[in-house]
Amino acid sequence: MKEPALLLHCRRADLEERYKLLGLLYICIEEDYGKFWGKERAYKFTHSTILHECMDRNIATTYVAESYNGLLAFAVTTAAEILYLVVLPQFRDKGIGRRLLSFVEGTMLLTTHRLEARINKLNRSGLELFLSNGWKMVTYKETDEEVTLALERRHF
What Gene Ontology terms describe what this protein does at the molecular function level (predicted)? Predict the structure, then answer.
C-alpha cells in the first residue's frame, strides 16, 4: 500500500488546543521514557519534572504541524524559548520536526541564543534535528537515560 503524502501546515494553536496538547505532551513523554525507564519511573518524571517545568516557565503558546489526517507534531514554548518539540512517533524521520522548528523560530523571532534540551537516548534524531537546523552544541552531559545539552544559535 502506498503511503499518502503529508500536506504540512504549521500554525499557532488556539487556547483550547493548548491545554489538550499539554496533556498529549505528558502522554508522549511517558510513552517514550517508559520504554527505557519503565512505566512507573516515567510517570513520576512526567508528573513532577515536566509539570513543574511547564508551570514555572509560563507557557506562552503552542504551535502545531498538521495534515488532512490531523496532528503530526507540536511545540510548547515560552515567550523566548522552545521548551518541547514533539513529533508523533508514526511521523518521525519525515522532516516534520525540522519544518515545525523553522516555523516556530520564524514566528517567535527568538531573542535567546541558548536552549537547554533534554533528549531521550532512544530519540537521537531529536539532537540531529536541532544540529541540522543551525544550532551548535555548547555543553553536554550524559546519564544512563538521557542526554542533556545546551544549544546555541546565532541570530542575524
Answer: acyltransferase activity, transferring groups other than amino-acyl groups
Q: Please check whether residue 128 lies inside any domain of the structure.
A: no
DSSP assignment of 37-101, as one string?
H-HHHHHHHIIIIIHHHHHHTT--EEEEEEETTEEEEEEEE-SS-EEEEEE-GGGTTSSHHHHHH
CATH number, domain with residue 86: 3.40.630.30
pTM of the model: 0.67
Tally of CA atoms within 13 A in the half-sphere of 68 that contains its CB: 4
What pLDDT, in 10s, does the model give residues 84-119?
Answer: 888 888 888 888 888 888 888 778 765 555 665 556
Percent of the chain with pLDDT over 70: 63
CA neighbor of 134 nearest in space, from 86, 101, 108, 92: 101
Residue 1 is classified by DSSP as: -
Domain span at residue 45 reads 9-112
Q: Is residue 99 part of a domain?
A: yes
Partners of 151 in the β-ladder: 115, 137
Rounded to the nearest 5°, which phi and psi values hold at 30?
A: -60, -45
For residue 27, what is its C-alpha cell? Answer: 502522554
Give the pLDDT confidence of 1-24 residue by residue, as tens digits: 445 456 678 999 988 888 888 888
